[in-house]
Predict the 3D structure of the following.
Amino acid sequence: MKNLVLLGSTGSIGTNTLRLATDFPDRFRVVGLTAGSNSDKLLAQIRRFRPRCVALADAAAAERLRRRCGRQPDLRNLEIEILSGTEGLVRVATLEEADLVVSAIVGSAGLLPTFAAIGAKKTIALANKEPLVMAGSILQQEAQRQGITLLPVDSEHSAIFQSMSGQRRRDVRRLILTASGGPLLDLPIGKRRTIKPAQALKHPTWRMGSKISIDSATLMNKGLEVIEARWLFDIPPDRIDVVIHRQSIVHSMVEYLDGSVIAQMGVPDMRGPLGYALNYPERLPLGLPSLELTKVKALTFEPPDLKKFPCLGYAYEAIKIGGSLPAVLNAANEVAVRAYLEDRIGFLEIARLIRKTMDAHVPQAVKSLEDVLEADRWGREKAAKAVKEDGR
Amino acid sequence: MKNLVLLGSTGSIGTNTLRLATDFPDRFRVVGLTAGSNSDKLLAQIRRFRPRCVALADAAAAERLRRRCGRQPDLRNLEIEILSGTEGLVRVATLEEADLVVSAIVGSAGLLPTFAAIGAKKTIALANKEPLVMAGSILQQEAQRQGITLLPVDSEHSAIFQSMSGQRRRDVRRLILTASGGPLLDLPIGKRRTIKPAQALKHPTWRMGSKISIDSATLMNKGLEVIEARWLFDIPPDRIDVVIHRQSIVHSMVEYLDGSVIAQMGVPDMRGPLGYALNYPERLPLGLPSLELTKVKALTFEPPDLKKFPCLGYAYEAIKIGGSLPAVLNAANEVAVRAYLEDRIGFLEIARLIRKTMDAHVPQAVKSLEDVLEADRWGREKAAKAVKEDGR
């Protein structure tokens, strides 16, 4: 029996994790949940899974939840701690009884709780890629110091992790990340300016949250994954390639020095990589349909077009230069995506804003989380200012 | 440094093995070679690799080789044993100084030397599939008793072996063998009757010997591989599937119970799986080109047509019924392929002869190699008689 803590329980990964906890009640017990501000959904999860401790990032939402729990006859007598703010998230992330922490907060807000969970020697199922993007070297150093494993939940990184199973790290020649290309892959450059969020959110193969869906439309998501892979697998970025694979069947690949390529495939369903991370090293009978390649018929592969998708190139640039630049790239991207979703800037401005912010930044070495958070703050301010200057 | 013995050194696998031994002189030393009757080629190999002991199955060829070696100034003083017959092959297969025996004799002639090598606790790199087809249960029992590993050299089985690396055997749901479909895949049934050997030998993706090339044209090769996989990986045949994959890039796949599929890919070159088996568990820098999927563009998958390729169905039938039937299937196939290559029967008669021989056979349990050899003899006689009755 594994005791689970979910950081980001009301998002897409969070709800899929709870679905697995429901399907395998003899394997997983939910001891802690955290969310941003969705107290309604968190209340429903509390009722169902009865965790010992929960937290909401938003203090007002936490207060609301406390009052509502007090009024519910079935919850009044439950000894459940309801915490709030980053401090509350960190507290849940480090619960003594937790065996595995699912890090699934969206964006940079996951950094401190994830770092705290590593510090408390918890095994991490990592779905939240931004902490590694921002502070990969610091997180991996801490993970090594604590002797814990970061188990990837992203389908691509899970595929690489599975494709390296039983192989020697030093035999690896190249990682090949696949990208569906997102909903705008075939849209000519000239027509990208007027893309509305509703269209950009329509991911062809995966159902995900809105931030990651926009990141998929710009291919920034793949760029962030390149940076994530660099830290998870300790492979320099010039040995990490990206190929467009529209069908999202091959989740990623590893090439070895004898020319052999190991690939992991499957129907696109988050429960695959999630279940692998939760129950590692044993596989779960997830009840997912078999992959019938004769029905898929063809798997296609194309090189990515960096003119159409400049964000992918920016991410390579950021990780090659390193230091504070990846955190700045990530901060600018978060600001730009939110501005786009709120219709304050156009689609093409996302990349332009990131470029502008990166160009204005003088990369610094990062030695502590404080350095990283400083770069993050700097990037957000700079990008927010650019939104005001250039936005509608 | 590994000491190698090559059973079948003058064939396609044998020469590729020697190429690897040449490329990695600090890793492999050739201590024994055997061939059927090609004394010229064996002499050239002796001159190059200076093994301590060689054997030719054909006694007259061995005598010829002895005389020629005696006449060569550079070989006269080499202390090289030249043996002959099955006894000679067995002797080389069990050389005391051998660490790894490459079993690459074509067809059933490999059975006794391979069995002897297992009995002498040699690690086996198995390219010769017929021994497992004929006597899989007996060979695996002996391998387990001796505590040795059968390392597959067939690209398909190497792919499965690699795709199971680091995985738990009991998590395996299904093996998926890929088949290029051979040179006649798109030829309508009506036009198959008049196919000449020269056309049937033109394999689209792999360069191989003539027996295995014809087996690829009938898909019997894939059928034999299903039987081989059943024994190598201890998976029942109803959990082994075959898909047509024209590009021969995905060499085979393993599906796990969580729906995840691990595949091994690469450019079609025998040195890949061969190098993996020779140097297992370390990979060799083979200098093979990287697999560029964006140049391959698409990987396609189709179900096999059992009407066009009845031999595949016969092989499934043989392994499901078991006992002596797989040995009879294999014997009839060897006789039929030789008759076809000698233009004594037409292409469609290959399958018909096998069917006829199988129908005439009453399957028996096989408990010893003698039982297997008896089934083999029976199948050969029956099939040879059928060639005479139905042939040209």
Q: What stands out?
A: The domain at 167-267+293-390 of chain A is CATH 1.10.1740.10 (Rna Polymerase Sigma Factor; Chain: A).
